[in-house]
Amino acid sequence: MTQIILTLFNGLSLGSILLLIALGLAITFGLMNVINMAHGELIMIGAYVTYVMQNLFLNYAPQQYFDLYFILSIPIALLIAAGVGMILEFSLIRFLYRRPLDSLLATWGVGLMLQQLARSIFGAPNVGVQSPSFLNGGLEVGTLLFPYSRLFIIGLSIVCLVSIYYYFYRTSSGRRVRAVMQNRQMAECLGVSTRKVDLITFAIGSGFAGVAGCALTLLGAIGPTIGTNYIIDAFMVVVVGGVGALFGAVAGALGIGFFNTVFEYVTNASLGKVLIFLLIIAFLQWRPSGLVTSRSRSLD
């Protein structure tokens, strides 16, 4: 029973990490149909923002306030990554809508440039980020130990998911985004500024990528290629969940996280990754559109 509970917790933890990474991609790829290969580098930006904030607090803030660096890093990473996303959308992406291959190649080139820029500023070797003291250790429940860092990531992913849901389904701006996604021409006829909607939506997706990068600093060292290690998993979550479906991304992340944990426990890490890829391929043969399908006259 103890092993079963730990396996379920590890699956939930991995699923939460994948969800946090894929939330931004679910917006830019799922809602906007933009294949943003630079999404991993936006995650990297959030991670390095956390690293810079740590160094600023180490050098200039009193020791008793050191733990605040991580709390402040989350909104700052969101704003900086969103700003980079707005610049990217305004200067490049807006010319490549409805041109998926061109957007894929262009954003891949942008990602390589951002990686090289990070190497020039911070160096090629990985750097470490010290976890705040309140996330050290874990919650003891009987003989079980649940790390505070994993619990924090689970809670952060829930907060981000609720925030995105509230924005898209409870605000007028979010309704305009969904209207443009479902029928751009009709939304333009009704007076919606689709150009402004595209810019804001891409910025939101980029901002949540920065938050994911901030959370990943709790799991280990960071480097210029930290985002590249997760970009394939993020695309898998969005495709399995269903393009354009926010709750599909949740189901896809938790499903992939759970099965990946089970396969790794039964076999090993390498074979477990192979099995999860085979499972996803078999699933997409059965449901090519993913778990949740968004239907409208425009999409049909």
From TrEMBL:
Signal peptide segment: none
Keywords, ordered alphabetically: Amino-acid transport, Cell membrane, Membrane, Transmembrane, Transmembrane helix, Transport
Main subcellular location of this protein, as a coarse class: membrane
Transmembrane segments: 12-35, 42-62, 68-92, 145-168, 199-222, 234-258, 265-286
Subcellular locations according to the entry: Cell membrane
Membrane topology reported for the UniProt record: Multi-pass membrane protein
Record-linked CDD domains: TM_PBP1_LivH_like (cd06582)
Coiled coil: none
Family to which this protein belongs: Belongs to the binding-protein-dependent transport system permease family. LivHM subfamily.
Protein name: Urea transport system permease protein
Species in which this protein is naturally found: Aquibacillus albus
